Amino acid sequence: MRAIATAAACCATSAAAVAAAAAMAVAAAGLADDARAQLQFDFTGIQRTPAAVVDIALHNLRLAAGVLLCAALVPSLGRHARHAVSALLATVLVLNAAAAGVAIAAYGGRLLAATRVHLPLELAGLALAGGTYLQALRQPLRPLALALVGAGCLALLLGAAAVETYLSGGPG
């Protein structure tokens, strides 16, 4: 489990670095206004309902579940398939992190304030799935380890969704 945690930290650090690079690139190019015009975030908040928690959690859980499925399957894949899956997962990480960076450049402190509580939990849950995949590339994981990580991802992502729903500003 320590190796998974270390790999998860690597995933989280990589995502943060990509987001920071994207934010700096957008800001340096003077494209923050254009990004805001495209994104059109209104910051009105989320309806504070259990259904909103479930919707947000399911969105993130699908991604985590897909990564964990890849972690379970990767030991049985051939070298080329393993490289293709790794490239696909790296692309998903880069695109999602870059999108977050563009949003940060567009909205700055306002976005950071709106996400400061739930985003670390969300990043931890998704990075845990990514770290599990990275560890599975090194050695096959036991079903119990995958189940424990899955439970951890579920707890983190449900917690993030609840915090986002009930502790963010917006309609009550």
What does this structure look like?
- By secondary structure, the chain is mainly α.
- It has one domain (2-39, 50-167).
- It has 7 helices and no strands.
- It has helices at residues 2-28, 32-39, 50-73, 79-107, 109-115, 118-138, 143-167.
- Helix 3 (50-73) runs parallel beside helix 6 and helix 6 (118-138) packs antiparallel against helix 7.
- The longest helix is centred in the middle third of the chain and has 29 residues, at 79-107.
- The chain starts with a helix and ends in a 5-residue tail after the last helix.
- The mean pLDDT is 94.
Structure, briefly:
It is built from seven helices and no strands. With 172 residues, it is mostly helical.
Could you tell me the strand content as a percent range? under 5%
Largest sheet: none
Poorly predicted regions = none
Series of H and E elements = HHHHHHH
* Overall domain count: 1
Q: Structural class of the secondary structure composition? A: mainly alpha
The count of strands amounts to 0
Give the helix proportion (percent range). Answer: over 70%
Average pLDDT rating: 94
